[in-house]
Amino acid sequence: MPAPYQPDDQQIRDRRDVGARILALRQRADLTQERLGERSGLDRRTIGRVENGLVPATLDQLGAIARAIGVPLWRLFRDE
Fold first, then answer.
1. Among 15, 23, 48, 75, which is disulfide-ready with 71 (CB 3.0 to 4.6 Å)?
2. How far apart are CA 30 and CA 28, in angstroms?
């Protein structure tokens, strides 16, 4: 039986970077995790886990988050 998947250090850093950008953009938009969850259709706990880099977000989830915040998807991956 294969070993369970474990992300490497770079993947973990990438998750944290994206999560930090989501957090900053959410706060700039004056949204709580609860409100962002309502707007994006995601659970508030999922928003928190993504912001803290604890779980990988799917492209669909990232798209929903970006739309709910009102920014293009690319803004979750790099600063202006």
1. 75
2. 5
